[in-house]
User: Fold this.
Amino acid sequence: MSDKETHENENEEKKINPTPSTEPKENSDKDANLEEAMVEEADFERNEETPVSAEEDKKEAEGEEKENSKEKEEGTDMHKEMDDAIAEESEDEDSGKKHDIEMKDYHAMSMKDLVNELQSLVKKEKIQAIKDHVEEIKTEFNAKFEEEMEQKKEDFLEEGGNIIDFQYSTPVKKEFNSAYFEYKEKRNLHYQKLKQNLNENLNRRLAIIEELKGMIGAGADMNANFKEFKELQERWKKAGAIPRDQYNTVWNNYHHHVEHFYDFLHLDREFRDMDFKHNLEQKLKMITRAEELAQETNINRAFRELQMLHKMWKEDVGPVEKQYREDIWGKFSEATKKIHENRQAHFAELDKDKEKNLESKNDLISQIQEFASLDITSHNQAQQRIKKIEALREQFFKAGKVPRNVNEETWSKFKETVREFNRKKNAYYKNLKKEQYQNLEKKLELVEIAEDNKDNKDMEATTPIMKKVQSEWRKVGHVPRKDSDKIWKRFKKACNHYFDRLHSKQDEENKEGIEAFEKKKKMLEEVKELKLPKEHKEALALIKTKISEWKELGRVPYKMKYIEGKFNKVLDHLFNELDLSKKDSEMLKYENRLQALDDADDTEKIRKEQFFIRKRIDETKAEIRQLENNMQFFSNADESNPLFKEVLKNIERHKQELETWKAKLKKLRAL
Assistant:
């Protein structure tokens, strides 16, 4: 082979995608002449039928050129994407493992769940296979933590804190940092070893290329050269992964020299044609498989297998005869294009689901916005809305991913609406705290009054003051929780101290009353066991005697007055045994009340008792009049009518009560 031929072959074979004609040159020229004639004939017919301006011709040509350029650009992008994917996959021979690890919906997980998932991946999976998963987890965790931290910062500033002093961390954040640090340590160690291996493999491959270059033009036996070439191919296949940024350059270089070697083998066509035939068969099988993958429903699996086919096409199988290269590459590219289109359609379908998620998230943001626009007027209302906002936040995180181009905008809108609500909530509680501190000042004043007066000796003047501060205390609202128990204990201690002194003094002053209570308590038990004589007068006289004896025992302290009620109940039982009229029994019992009023020598109490009895007399008269008026509505005024009979009975009962109240008033006036 001449130097000129060698140079021309090298220039031609350095092209990444060689496109030689698939037909002999003679036929190609004939076809070109025929096609040119057809075009001229078509132009002539068009000009005959419809005159077209030169400008329109130019526009049409530019349109066709743009369309062809667009198709070419799409094809270039498609193959570039495939080459990049192969380069990445080739760098890490275990990278295929990552496709078997489920990519969960990390967006819907809580921070604690994200930490657990990260720890599990770092512990159980190969470190080089979880990169995408870890980055996704990191993104979601940081977003959630940032939102929480921003809220805590706002709370801190609302309470008067200085931004310089703000620091925030949580146990779950520390857990995440620890798990992520462990991941980075393992990842760095892995890539240090990988980098060393990749560079060693790169040197081996470059050495193989140099050996291959040295074989071209060698004068050794062609059979020996071909055998050595096959050994180099096997060594190339086993040389291992190399850095991805070197992958395409090294492969193109190797491929160029392989094709150059095959051209060198034209001196021995038997070896070359045999290998070309084998390579053609292998590449046709790859085309068939690629066409089958174009029908595969599992898009991700089809794309991964297509990557493997491209890698085999480039690395494992050598070149074919030039007349077939463009044709088979075109078929392989066409199948690749279909798979690529299927993948794009799949992503478009996924984007439709993300659009639905976007609608859901925008709706949730609108609901949060509604709460954020409302004023908070009470603590209970604030707590209810906080729970609703939290529920809406959970729904937002579980609503799924949105299209990437609006992800940041949607997240920012969500955070802002939540913060708007939180600002209103914080403003409400800030005002509430202000009010609570005002209440605290009021209660502290009451505590001081109680403590200042707890040892006063003038109890007649102090007791109203202590009762008033107790009443005022109940009117004052809530105070800050941290101060509530402390001031209540001070106030309670002062009040209890004073009223214990007061009760002790009253007990001393009411010593006789306490003695009277003990005697009445004993007498009450005796009267309960009293057996009345059969003779009515004797029995009545005995009851009157017991009433007189009860009076003579004296007054009891105010807090022990309940014993009078118990004695009256026993008397009711005795009067029932005597079949005494209600009026008479009431008047006998009223003697006790009159005696107490007389002994108290309190004009105000007697006046109040008279007012009460007059009021009861007026009320009873009014009830009698109402009942008598009701009788006019009966169409059948016959005592045999149960309702009419019941009204008459009520009138009679009220008249008896009226007589009793009048008798009591008469007795009271006699005091």
In short: The CA atoms of residues 290 and 336 lie 7 Å apart. Confidence is low (pLDDT under 50) at residues 1-61, 63-68. The radius of gyration is 53 Å.
